[in-house]
Write a structure and sequence with these properties.
- This protein is of the alpha/beta class and 485 residues long.
- It has two domains: 216 residues, P-loop containing nucleotide triphosphate hydrolases (Rossmann fold, 3-Layer(aba) Sandwich), CATH 3.40.50.300; 246 residues, Rossmann fold, CATH 3.40.50.300.
- 31% of the residues lie in helices and 26% in strands.
- It has 14 helices and 22 strands.
- The strands form four sheets. A nine-stranded mixed beta sheet has the order 3-2-4-5-1-6-7-8-9, with helices on both faces.
- A hairpin with a 2-residue loop joins strand 6 and strand 7.
- Helix 12 packs parallel to helix 14.
- The longest helix has 17 residues.
Length: 485
């Protein structure tokens, strides 16, 4: 039996192996349970083809679906079953034609011995390393009662274990035929779910080893199953340089005490149209000038509009993309779960060396990803902490609802996560809307505690001198007495 360096057997699904701390323990039996259509058989195909590819002997005992149908479905998902041996015990159409019965098996009429003999003969002849039984609950129809069913399943699993096989078996549970008894028999349980928030996978039981608890996001595509484990920031850390990244705008850098430090989270907040995204992009341009890579994820704006706005004021977004210094992506509504999105960001950080990440914006993140809003905020916190641990500079764009009036730092409940808070505000001055910028918070260095006028022009962002002779700015209706007004 082929095992990994950790002594585990891969399930054939990388994300599930991660949840299982490296994979399955050999020579044990594992129950895969879930409603119809949740992916139980597909997981079995991953399990078997992974073994076959490693040169192992693998056996598929199909008790419900015919072999030809399984092969056809597997081909559509890209599985190569050439190394898989089938023991087809599924009911044939001839049974119905001859018996005129509506029961697959009748315990008092069917001799169990031929089926048991076929299983024994196949196992004795093959000595399989991996066995997939789909579904084991079909044995209920060969048993006179529940006691006899449990006895036969225990005997069957013990026989396979003594043959040194690792077994994956599925159940078809219903309200009338629950599978609680099978859960006690298994060394581990993989539970698959599908609901309004998408697909998920959990491992409520795993004897002899630790595993990652919780409901992990999952999807089934034309390439099979992908699992996205819950992101645990504590599992990731690296050494990194904490020197600041400047914005390239001298006045803004003065406000920030030199820029924003690497490995920190900055929230840029303000009402719609005030210049939040443009301000965040300055740091990404400055990072590119230092040979670093950045990525921006738009939840509320199209990349096309973003490029046009930036290039109209001299920020060469398209050139940065062409040079590989910047990745610009739009996240479409409900395309991702929070775990899928985090896995995508991790790939950019760990495989492409991205060192600056901007999430634009927080409200769009909560609306666009699958899941409960409160849970999504927690998952955003986890993503932020992971990025900090990896030395990535993070910019969260947060839109507040009020244009003027009482001051709000953020609306998304993330201010405590932020190391730095940069806010932009509209103010009304002499019947004209103007803008101001300030820094509310900076954990790791000093900053200027004044407000400055902020303007976006065809030449870029222009920031004025400190407004030291003004009051009431944060209320939106300032009292300014200046000689040039």
């Amino acid at each position: 039996m082929t095992t990994s360096e950790t002594g585990r057997l891969s399930t054939g699904v990388d994300g599930l192996d991660g949840v299982l701390d490296g994979g399955l323990l050999g020579g044990r039996s594992y129950l895969v349970r879930g409603a119809p259509g949740t992916g139980k058989t597909v997981l079995g195909l991953h399990f078997l083809t992974e073994g076959a590819a490693a040169g192992e002997s693998v056996l598929y005992i199909n008790l419900e679906e015919a072999t030809d149908d399984i092969r056809e479905n597997a081909t559509a998902l890209g599985f190569d079953l050439s190394g898989v041996t089938f023991l087809d015990l599924s009911p044939s159409s001839a049974f119905f034609a001859e018996d005129q019965s509506y029961s697959i098996f009748e315990a008092d009429e069917v001799d169990r011995e031929p089926i048991q003999r076929r299983i024994r003969d196949s196992v004795d002849e093959m000595e399989p390393d991996r066995v997939f039984v789909d579904p084991v609950t079909q044995f209920r129809y060969l048993s006179s009662d529940e006691f006899q069913f449990r006895k036969e399943v225990i005997s069957f699993m013990r026989y396979l274990k003594e043959a040194d096989a690792t077994v994956l078996f599925t159940s078809q549970r219903s309200a009338e035929t629950p599978d609680d008894d099978l859960q006690f028999l298994a060394d581990g349980i993989v539970e698959l779910r599908r609901d309004d928030e998408g697909r998920s996978l959990s491992v409520p039981k795993f004897r002899g080893s630790d595993r990652q608890s919780g409901a992990h996001s999952m999807e089934i595509t034309d390439a099979g199953i992908s699992v996205y484990p819950i992101l645990d920031p504590g599992d990731h850390a690296t050494e990194f340089d904490t020197t600041p990244i400047p914005s390239g705008n001298a006045e803004l850098d003065t406000l920030l005490g030199g820029g924003i430090e690497r490995g920190t989270i900055t929230v840029v907040s303000g009402p719609t149209g005030v210049g939040k995204t443009t301000t965040g992009t300055l740091f990404m341009q400055a990072a590119a000038d230092q040979g670093e890579r950045s990525a921006i994820y738009h939840f509320e704006e199209s990349p096309r509009t973003f490029r046009h706005r930036c290039e109209s004021i001299g920020i060469p977004v398209s050139t940065l993309e062409t040079d590989g210094a910047l990745t610009v992506e739009a996240v479409e509504a409900l395309d991702y779960s929070a775990e899928q999105f985090a896995a995508h960001v991790r790939e950019q950080v760990e495989e492409r060396g991205v060192s600056v990440v901007m999430i634009d914006g927080i409200n769009g993140y909560k609306l666009s990803l699958q899941g409960n809003e409160d849970a999504l905020v927690g998952k955003l916190h986890a993503l932020g902490r992971y990025l900090k641990n990896m030395g990535v500079t993070v910019i969260f764009v947060d839109e507040v609802g009020s244009v003027t009036g009482s001051f709000e730092a953020t609306e998304a409940g993330i201010s405590y996560l932020a190391d730095n808070v940069v806010f932009l505000r509209h103010i009304e001055l002499n019947g004209e809307l103007r803008k101001v910028v300030g820094v509310l918070k900076k954990r790791v260095s000093t900053f200027e505690r004044t407000l400055r006028e902020f303007e976006i022009t065809s030449d870029g962002i222009v920031i004025g001198d400190p407004l030291t002779d003004a009051s009431g700015l944060l209320e939106g209706t300032p009292d300014i007495e200046r000689s040039d007004r």
